[in-house]
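=== RUN LOG ===
request id: a7f3
mode: sequence -> structure
chains: 1
length: 171
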Amino acid sequence: MNQRFQRFVLGGAVLALSAGPFFAPVTAGAQTTGQGTFTRRHGMHHRFGEDAPLISIALRHKTELNLSADQVANLEKIRSNYQAQVTPLAQQVRGIDKEIATLRQQPQANLIQIKAKIQQAEPLRSEIRYLRFEALENGKSILSAQQQDQLKNLLVSMRQNFRKSQTRQAS
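=== RESULT ===
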């Protein structure tokens, strides 16, 4: 019974870790596209603000934010640099998560191997998270205080529109 309980708890922890709940933009299940810097994971609701592709949103709304050509070029550079750094790390995490899933499917899961794989993935997840914060901070440094306020207001509006559409779909 004790061993069953341990497998149940560890299985839940592995599932939670493989979902990458501590941040949504790029984790094992995330996608990166040419358009969005930070995209949502499969099966997760998109929450504007903390998870939003802020640099991509700013670029899509460059006219409303009154971005200069230099600001646009710098934001695009930050976005492409972020994607170039994160893509190989995210691929490694996805590979490790697949290995964990394979280990979990064995009749008698090897908990030592699973733990080692989890520990192998965590520094990569940490680096991805740091790179995201770095890109966001670099992006913010490009925008004036007024542009940052306009972007926040835009995100609030997008969030409200999203919630309204979700409410209509649920009805």
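=== NOTES ===
The chain has one domain: 2-163.
The chain has a mean pLDDT of 77.
=== END ===
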